[in-house]
Amino acid sequence: MSRTRKAIGAVGPEIRLAKRLWGASVSGSLLEQLKELVETIGISVAAGDIQVLDGRWYVTHAGLLRLARRKRCVGIETAAISEFCDRANCHYAFKATVFTSRTCKGFVGYGDADPSNVSLLVRGAEMRVAETRAVNRALRKAYGIGICSVEEIGAFAHPSQSSPEPKKLPPQPANGNGQGSPKVRDRLCQIIRQHQLDPNLVKAYATDFCAVKALRDATREQIENFVAHLADWAEKDRNALLCQLNSYLGQKAGAA
């Protein structure tokens, strides 16, 4: 009963956070679905368990692992399926088996990955993506999760066709650090508005990216590199970027 009361009490904060992160893209029906997911399986927006993409909820790998831990999952086994693996073409297939108890015979899931169905950001890591997808499917079967996981849906097509090379920022004045350069700051604000990113999460990510304790300690070159990186990632795979940003939820953004 205490768990139920705790879950119900978590609904309000989770819904408010979802509205703050995704705004108008979170409709009434999506909020009702989120409420049910929070109450029944303890899904948490704050912990990065869930994403909304193209008007639908998707659970994350981290969220599924958290659920398995709460449910006291006793083990997960994975194995490559050799007959469906082709190293020369970076195609891999995995089988995952989730054991929910010591007497459980196992819930099986399969996952595959190759350059045609993964994001540009994870090219070269197809084997790990395939294993993650297999684990996600097995966990969803084991715990009755009806919504697909982010990692299973592969690469997204975006309206804007960007060049494979990161965009270069115009040269900046030689004096001053990154945050003191108006053009860089304006470009960053433009990216945040264009792709509807959370400024505080972007700031936290920038601090981590620049390896500084506070963003004001970053050099102009570090800020320029971050802005170029952020713009490139937002255009190539905004959904993956959102997952990265949400990993900073609960952390304090560094002071600018």
TrEMBL record:
Region of interest: Disordered: 158-183
UniProt superkingdom: Bacteria
Protein name: Uncharacterized protein
Organism: Candidatus Sulfotelmatobacter kueseliae
